[in-house]
Design a protein that fits this description.
The complex is a heterodimer. By secondary structure, chain A is mainly α. Chain A is built from 9 helices and no strands. The longest helix of chain A has about 30 residues, at about 125-155. Chain A is flat and about 70 Å long. Chain B is an alpha/beta fold. Chain B is built from 9 helices and 11 strands. In chain B, the strands form 2 sheets. In chain B, strands 7-8-9-3-10-11 form a 6-stranded mixed β-sheet, with helices on both faces. Chain B is globular, with a radius of gyration of 18 Å. Classes of the chains: A mainly alpha, B alpha/beta. The interface between A and B is medium-sized, with 20 and 26 residues.
């Protein structure tokens, strides 16, 4: 098989790679905020339970979580495995990344001086106004570098979908590598991820720059 | 010490505090504090660090939860026998006072104008009117033309003046200052004290926690000396500064003599 054919075949899976990537961000970024707020809840039980789930999600391999979400329902309840693997894959990725984002958000929120809350309170901002207008914008600026790190990692982690045979770019590459006994598809995959991340870096850099108007 | 002239039958004091108590864990920070502030007066609170001055202001502005006593604004109870008014009522009380923090606490992601004007706009006031008022206040604070700047572009003294404009834009009846110059370089304290002095001349009601003794003496109608959570002595600034009665006051003021 020629290099060109490999590239064409593998790029057919790029749409699915992108689907995992964008859908995961779409769900995990807001979900992470909810998890962070639960984690910081003053109700001890809520924060303890949330903390427990975060340790599970961060303390076990994403690969296992993918297998658990995809095949777990079958082994537990005899449910049929989803035909479209995108759904379990995105669920597993979103939950896993939400746990990481939650901890980033929490760090960011806790780094805002308490005086900012007090100033807003004295000026009569409601709690929601204080969070949305005063705290969150400052948190977003502070956590951008950490979020960029996670997003870059996510690009590469999409390859993990091969464990449940979801036909994204890396899975196709791996199949070609097996059938052709060639290492070339992995080099192609590496190039694809690298280009993807150059774009991610550029976009995140632009966002950080837009937040640069204050210190 | 008994409070001064709050029960003479005339208009109630803007702020009266009676037997206020506050402990952090087992440490008693305010023990039985009583004072009242009359309209148009400037009251300075002086005293060594840890005496409870800031805690007193923070209790008066509901940032700290007092354990006991009364807080009244215009004769209405915000705190009655250690029990706070309903949340909605506290929100209404909050519109009566402003607080200027030691560390300014401007919102770094907002321009100067937005820092000053956002809160009144959120309270439903007309945006153009608030902006006009904000610009006027900034002018008064000597910050004309700086409305588009961000806090990090300003000196500490300028930031504190923005913070004062922000508090004033809410049109408070009484303004609290919590060591407004303590975080400033010495050469910048003057410009902040100057605007506070100007407000005093305009008969703005103010309570100022400060270590600036000459300022307190010159500007206040009354000086309160606090130590260890109690009001040791209070009265006319000239009396308290030049002729203190209590040994604890003399001891404290001696440090500032040079």
């Amino acid at each position: 098989m020629s290099l060109m054919t490999m590239i064409v075949k593998m790029s057919e899976g790029l749409g699915k790679t992108c689907a995992i990537f964008f859908l995961t961000l779409l769900f995990s970024l807001p979900l992470g905020m909810i998890v962070a707020l639960l984690r910081m809840s003053k109700v001890k039980l809520v924060s303890a339970v949330t903390r427990f789930f975060i340790t599970i999600l961060r303390g076990t391999p994403l690969m296992l979580q993918l297998l658990a979400v995809t095949y777990g329902p079958y082994y537990l309840f005899g449910a049929t495995v989803a035909r479209n693997k995108l759904i379990p894959v995105v669920i597993a990725f979103s939950i896993n990344y939400a746990a990481y984002f939650a901890e980033i958000y929490r760090g960011g929120i806790e780094s805002i001086p308490v005086g900012q809350y007090e100033a807003a309170e004295v000026l009569g901002y409601t709690r929601i106004q204080t969070f949305m207008r005063i705290i969150l914008p400052q948190v977003i600026k502070r956590i951008m570098p950490s979020v960029t790190n996670e997003v870059v990692t996510l690009v590469k982690d999409t390859s993990m979908a091969f464990t449940v045979s979801y036909q994204e770019m890396f899975t196709i590459g791996k199949q070609i590598a097996n059938s052709q006994t060639s290492f070339t598809p992995f080099v192609v995959a590496g190039a694809f991820y690298y280009i993807f991340n150059v774009i991610v870096d550029y976009v995140m850099g632009r966002i950080e720059k837009r937040l640069d108007y204050y210190r | 010490m008994a409070e001064i002239n709050s029960s003479t039958g005339a208009a109630p004091s803007i702020l009266s505090i009676r037997s206020l108590q506050k402990s952090f864990d087992s440490v008693s920070v305010l023990r039985d504090i009583s004072l009242s502030v009359e309209r148009g007066n400037v009251v300075s609170i002086i005293g060594p660090s840890g005496s409870g001055k800031s805690t007193l202001l923070r209790c008066a502005s509901f940032l700290e939860h007092a354990d006991g006593g009364d807080i009244l604004y215009d004769g209405e109870y915000a705190l009655h026998n250690g029990v706070y008014a309903q949340k909605a009522e506290l929100a209404r009380f909050r519109t009566r006072f402003g607080l200027v923090f030691q560390n300014f606490q401007l919102f770094p992601h907002y321009s100067v104008l937005r820092n000053v004007s956002e809160a009144p706009i959120l309270h439903g006031e007309n945006k153009d009117e608030v902006h006009a008022r904000a610009l006027e206040l900034l002018k008064k604070m000597g910050l004309e033309g700086r409305e588009k700047a961000y806090p990090y572009q300003l000196s500490g003294g300028q930031q504190q003046r923005v913070a004062i404009a922000r508090a004033l834009c809410m049109r408070p009846e009484i303004l609290f200052f919590d060591e407004p110059t303590s975080a400033l370089d010495p050469e910048l304290t003057g410009e902040v004290l100057k605007v506070i002095r100007q407000l005093a001349e305009e008969r703005m009601t103010m309570v100022v926690v400060t270590h600036e003794m000459p300022f307190a003496k010159a500007v206040s109608n009354r000086v309160i000396f606090m130590a260890d959570g109690v009001i040791v002595e209070q009265g006319d600034p000239k009396e308290v500064f030049d002729n203190p009665r209590e040994e604890r006051t003399k001891q404290f003021l001696r440090v500032f003599e040079r």
